[in-house]
């Protein structure tokens, strides 16, 4: 397999190259209104410099003509099928990560490269999306990935234009978002970040794999995911996810702690709704060692306060650690992906924020709502139907639904549904969430 | 298997508990001169708080008497042998990490917990050593480890007293060291950090497993490792390592880049000597696709400047990324450990800074020098003997040796070898190294 990426010197404008020059891609892109940006998909920054210095000219000269824009360790040509060690490997998977110079990505990228997520027979291409401001840091990340010598990591490219970075990607992990400044209203944040996800949705629609799986981490992630999918009508809405897995993991840990068992005994935990303080960690359906939580934990007061306990975890961590929880967020992203690419253990399920269309629970249609799902491991999922509902659970679910419907009205200008009308009841961001 | 840790409220003084109360341990410790410290080996900080709040009393009441000081997810009792999923697992491995609240550890701990390092049948106990200043951050790290739900991570404890944290550890990964302040002489740094490693050597000698493997990362790591082993006479000197694996990885990447091959084609790279600017990346013995490097890369000027290229990598990264390379350092620590616990691929070797005693190369005895090693995967190693030497290589090795001999004289007061005499030729710290 030959792997290809395009290198364009910063400031040179858009240089046609393997990543941007396919006829189909060009056609798709011409239909897009685009802000001009630096064309900056590159690999192996140091190598590019060396070429300028005349050091690596031998390598450049040896490379075939079609690849002469590209240099560096991740741009080398080789044939995985020709080697015993790699010939049984799967086809390269292309993974885009936005906010790639941030702390969550700094954990996540190395996990993706190590094989921990997609398995030890799955070669990986990482496409890192950053901003002009973060571009140097992106180069640093790419250099550290080079120095890590991960055998499965076969391509790294970096850029600031989603139309280039998202080209043919199989996964888009959308982490980058603006943090809320002091005194900023939630509506303003929805607007600023919503614009980012509208743009990225358009870019995915134009250039990504037709079956790309999109995981939105940047907050407010449910509504960002909704904006993103509305701007990508050619990609199935079912392929978009908002990350609520960190909430699920924290809920499992607290249930284990309270029950005095190890956390691997806790199953069937659902986070319902919005990734905000209206989220609903579900202890009605959750099980501990196969038994209903309410049988094992009879402390009703604790159970009623459980939602608060889970929500406060992030804030408590920030207090301790002085910054938000990048490492465990990255772990939860890994868990969210693995849940889609490995079969769900029999009887269990996982939480993910997905597009509501024909859901069996009676939750409003046309929003992104976290619900219990199962997967065969093919990247797809089905909603779990064997769930119970009671008044306490349903009331809270409706509250989170109301919030998401209000958020949706607030971003109508970004989803193509008319003028925005913003009437958000209260500030429901999780403490410290970006 | 029941796992035990001791919880002592901060400020309560030394509370006898499973970690500190064994008769043997008490005997060993009584022989040590110790500075009084807070007794702060704990697990699951939040749980401890909950107990104070009366929330988790049910759990406490269920725990057997000998464990009542201990609470939280990592303190639960269970029997790995009783479950199908875990009964074939190996015996728990105890891993101490110093500087545990720092950025390198923040990457490393999650790798250790994931099974990436020791394998998917190896349960892990992490013993995190921090300082009074970093204690809250340590709690945050422990909380993030809890929230990550790693099935193999069966115990986490945190503390600031190495005599408690190092109790019975099988591995000690010594990352914590003071960074050099502005204008600080190297000799002053050697003294300040040397004192830390003298103390930690004494603690390991007193309480660690008799076959503990010690990897020193905190710089200047070679001489710190020498100080550490000299203060731990009851632990084989062969068990101490100084990390030069990041240098080796960077050297491999640069050779691959220059040769236009993927980095998995580069083998037999040795970093000789000190982890400083006198380090010697060896391109005489290195191979690319099984062929000597000098056959593949005929650019002599490039090869002569190769050492500089490798050394400058860290500084270049700091410039790009704004901080030192925590992620790839953590990866190289993983590589260093894996090289000792998995058999070395046939014909290849790896670099690690080890104690010189009876080495076949003619390098001075009684220092810690990075050399080519092979392992059967049992945690031990043998020096590679099938290495070539030429004048260019040997001259540079002698220069690094001279530096290490000078550093050794400079810390004589810490190794029990009389008065220190400091006459370091020049500043040879790697850029940005701590």
UniProtKB/TrEMBL annotation, chains A, B:
Transmembrane segments: none annotated. It holds the Pfam family Ldh_1_C. CDD domains: MDH_chloroplast-like (cd01338). Signal peptide: none annotated. It catalyses: (S)-malate + NADP(+) = oxaloacetate + NADPH + H(+). It comes from the Eukaryota. Residues 94-241 form the Lactate/malate dehydrogenase N-terminal domain. Keywords: Chloroplast, Disulfide bond, NADP, Oxidoreductase, Plastid, Transit peptide. Its EC number is 1.1.1.82. GO terms for molecular function: L-malate dehydrogenase (NADP+) activity. It is found in: Plastid, Chloroplast. One of its GO terms (cellular component) is chloroplast. InterPro entries: Lactate/malate_DH_C (IPR022383), Lactate/malate_DH_N (IPR001236), Lactate_DH/Glyco_Ohase_4_C (IPR015955), Malate_DH_AS (IPR001252), Malate_DH_NADP-dep_pln (IPR011273), Malate_DH_type2 (IPR010945), NAD(P)-bd_dom_sf (IPR036291). Its main location: plastid. The chloroplastic, NADP-dependent form is essential for the photosynthesis C4 cycle, which allows plants to circumvent the problem of photorespiration. In C4 plants, NADP-MDH activity acts to convert oxaloacetate to malate in chloroplasts of mesophyll cells for transport to the bundle sheath cells. Belongs to the LDH/MDH superfamily. MDH type 2 family. This is malate dehydrogenase (NADP(+)). The lineage of its organism: Eukaryota, Viridiplantae, Streptophyta, Embryophyta, Tracheophyta. The gene is mdh.
């Amino acid at each position: 397999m030959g792997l290809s990426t395009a290198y364009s010197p910063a400031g040179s404008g858009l240089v046609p190259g393997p990543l941007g020059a396919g006829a189909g891609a060009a056609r798709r892109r011409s239909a897009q209104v685009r802000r001009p940006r630096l064309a900056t998909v590159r690999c192996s920054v140091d190598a590019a410099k060396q070429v300028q210095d005349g050091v690596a000219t031998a390598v450049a000269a040896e490379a075939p003509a079609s690849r002469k824009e590209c240099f560096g360790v991740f741009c080398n040509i080789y044939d995985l099928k020709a080697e015993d060690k790699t010939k049984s490997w799967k086809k390269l998977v292309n993974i885009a990560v936005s906010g790639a110079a941030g702390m969550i990505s700094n954990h996540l990228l190395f996990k993706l490269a190590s094989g921990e997520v997609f398995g030890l027979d799955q070669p990986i291409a990482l496409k890192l999306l950053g901003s002009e401001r973060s571009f140097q840091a992106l180069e640093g990340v790419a250099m550290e990935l080079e120095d890590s010598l991960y055998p499965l990591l076969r391509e790294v490219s970096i850029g600031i234009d989603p139309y280039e970075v998202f080209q043919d990607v199989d996964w888009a992990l959308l982490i980058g978002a603006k943090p809320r400044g002091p005194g900023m209203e939630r509506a303003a944040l929805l607007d600023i970040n919503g614009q980012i996800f509208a743009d990225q949705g358009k870019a995915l629609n134009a250039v990504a794999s037709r079956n790309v799986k999109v995981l939105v981490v940047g907050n407010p992630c449910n509504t960002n995911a909704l904006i993103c999918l509305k701007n990508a009508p050619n990609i199935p809405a079912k392929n978009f996810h908002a990350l609520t897995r960190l909430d699920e993991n924290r809920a499992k840990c607290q249930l284990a702690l309270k029950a005095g068992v190890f956390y691997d005994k806790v199953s069937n935990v659902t986070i319902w709704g919005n990734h905000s303080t209206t989220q609903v960690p579900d202890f009605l359906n959750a099980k501990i060692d196969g038994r209903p939580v309410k049988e094992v934990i009879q402390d009703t007061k604790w159970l009623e306060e459980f939602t608060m306990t889970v929500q406060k975890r992030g804030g408590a961590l920030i207090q301790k650690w002085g910054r938000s929880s990048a490492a465990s967020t990255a772990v939860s992203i890994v868990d969210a992906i693995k849940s889609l690419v490995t079969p769900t253990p029999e009887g269990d399920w996982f939480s993910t924020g997905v597009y509501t269309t024909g859901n069996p629970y009676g939750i409003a249609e046309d929003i992104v709502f976290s619900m219990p799902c199962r997967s065969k491991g093919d990247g797809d999922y089905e909603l779990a139907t064997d769930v119970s509902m009671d008044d306490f659970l349903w009331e809270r679910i409706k509250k989170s639904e109301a919030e998401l419907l209000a958020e949706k009205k607030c971003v109508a200008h970004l989803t193509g549904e008319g003028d925005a009308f913003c009437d958000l009841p209260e500030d429901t961001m999780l403490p410290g969430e970006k």
